[in-house]
Design goal:
It catalyses: dTDP-beta-L-rhamnose + L-arginyl-[protein] = N(omega)-(alpha-L-rhamnosyl)-L-arginyl-[protein] + dTDP + H(+). The protein is α/β, with parallel strands linked by helices and about 375 residues long. The protein has two domains: about 5-150 and about 360-375, Rossmann fold (3-Layer(aba) Sandwich), CATH 3.40.50; about 155-360, Glycogen Phosphorylase B (Rossmann fold, 3-Layer(aba) Sandwich), CATH 3.40.50.2000. It is built from 15 helices and 14 strands. The protein has helices at about 15-30, 45-50, 95-100, 120-125, 155-165, 165-175, 200-205, 220-230, 255-265, 275-280, 295-310, 315-330, 335-345, 345-360, 365-375; strands at about 5-10, 35-40, 60, 65-70, 80-85, 105-110, 125-130, 135-140, 185-190, 210-215, 240, 245-250, 265-270, 285-290. Helix 1 crosses helix 15 and helix 12 runs antiparallel to helix 13 (about 335-345). The longest helix has 17 residues, at about 15-30. The two termini are about 15 Å apart.
């Protein structure tokens, strides 16, 4: 019989939470043959990633996944064989009772946030709290052996390789977004939270001797772009040029198209968790704007990742990319570290490809979850 999975997602970071769970749900169905019910409390945010979603429907099917609206007034349903609470969300109490009432106890997992911190390895797979006789387990994505790995669909890196070697395919894709790349211009994608450091970064590129073209999908950073340009109301399709820098606003694209955008660019600035992982699979240098947490806990996560990611770089390249990430996340002046990173662009590009291959040598997150379930039963 087909194993039934329930994945619960509360949308906190606009697109990161639903982005991760939507990718996971699709991959479980497509590659592992399980039945997935994805419970989402905010279908409007989901609609941005999957335009086929009808926010007015409480139940619908998308790409083999049963998508259910998670209502405030919960209606009783039978619990699944595997239950995933994404990012420590609290399950409805009636659903927890349904888990306890099952004849065969379900596997209940908390799929936690991605982190490179050392303690994650020691906690991954451990039992957590119990509800009645139903045991919950920690499941941590991660970058090292002993964690749950990263989301990666079968054949992803080969599809990326073929696309990056096909200049004509890239040109067709970019033109579909209204992008005409100036000969010799370096392409950057920019998806980030609000950031006071943006003006210094843009100023540095604008005064460079080589051309830069920054592609900005609609999002929270757009207000800072408008202030730098001195223009209100920049929408999809709008562009602005100052010196060597062209800035162009793109429409918010669905996940598969966003992958192609990352693959086209020479450098990718990303935010949160979902786009952060996808930028690593692009095999290009990146800049991460981590989700801010109380008491600056997020900065510990940033440093933990930098420690792993920069291993093997020369000292100048390590200082350049680490300094760039730190100043960006502090909203500080970017000029010095951006110039230093540009001087080491070849080394950083090769390092990004090597890091991608290293991460791809481990099992992907969906496969690790399925294996955990099979071992558990």
């Amino acid at each position: 019989m087909t194993v039934r999975w329930d994945i619960f997602c509360t949308v906190v970071d606009n697109f990161g939470d639903i982005g991760v769970t939507w990718r996971l749900a699709r991959q479980l169905v497509a590659e592992h043959g399980v039945a997935v019910r994805l419970w989402v409390d905010d279908l409007r945010a989901f609609e941005r990633l999957c335009p086929e979603i009808d926010p007015a429907l409480s139940e619908q099917w998308q790409q083999g996944v049963q998508v259910r609206h998670w209502p405030k007034d919960w209606l009783p349903v039978e619990a699944a064989d595997v239950v995933i609470a994404a990012f420590a969300c609290q399950l409805p109490s009636a659903y927890m009772d349904a888990m306890a009432e099952r004849q065969v106890t379900p596997l209940w997992m908390n799929l936690d946030y991605l982190s490179a911190e050392d303690w994650v390895i020691g906690c991954h797979g451990l039992p957590s709290v119990k509800y009645k006789h139903v045991q919950k387990y920690f499941f941590f994505p991660g970058f090292q052996e002993g964690t749950g790995g990263l989301l990666r669909e079968a054949g992803l890196l080969e599809r990326r390789r073929q696309f990056q070697q096909d200049g004509a395919a890239q040109q067709v894709f970019l033109r579909g977004l209204g992008v005409e790349r100036e000969p010799g211009a370096r392409l950057i994608s920019l998806f980030a939270y609000e950031n006071a450091g943006l003006a210094s970064w843009f100023d540095t590129m604008a005064t460079d001797t080589r051309p830069w073209h920054v592609l900005v999908p609609e999002g929270r950073i757009l207000g800072d772009v408008e202030r730098w340009a001195g223009i209100d109301g920049l929408g999809a399709g709008a562009s602005y040029r100052r010196g060597a820098l062209t800035v162009q606003v793109l429409p918010f694209v669905r996940q598969d198209e966003y992958d192609h955008l990352l693959w086209c660019c020479d450098f990718n600035a990303v935010r949160g968790e979902d786009s952060f992982v996808r930028a690593q699979w692009a095999g290009r240098p990146l800049l991460w704007h981590i989700y801010q947490q109380e008491e600056d806990v997020h900065l510990e996560k940033l440093e933990a990742f930098l420690k792993l990611y920069t291993e093997g770089l020369s000292e100048p390249a390590e200082k350049a990319i680490s300094g760039l990430w730190r100043t960006w996340n502090a909203g500080q002046d970017m000029a010095e570290h951006w110039k230093a990173a540009c001087e080491k662009d070849r080394e950083l590009a090769e390092h990004a490809r090597s890091w991608c291959l290293e991460q791809a040598s481990r099992a992907d997150l969906a496969t690790a979850l399925v294996k955990f379930y099979r071992n558990w039963i």
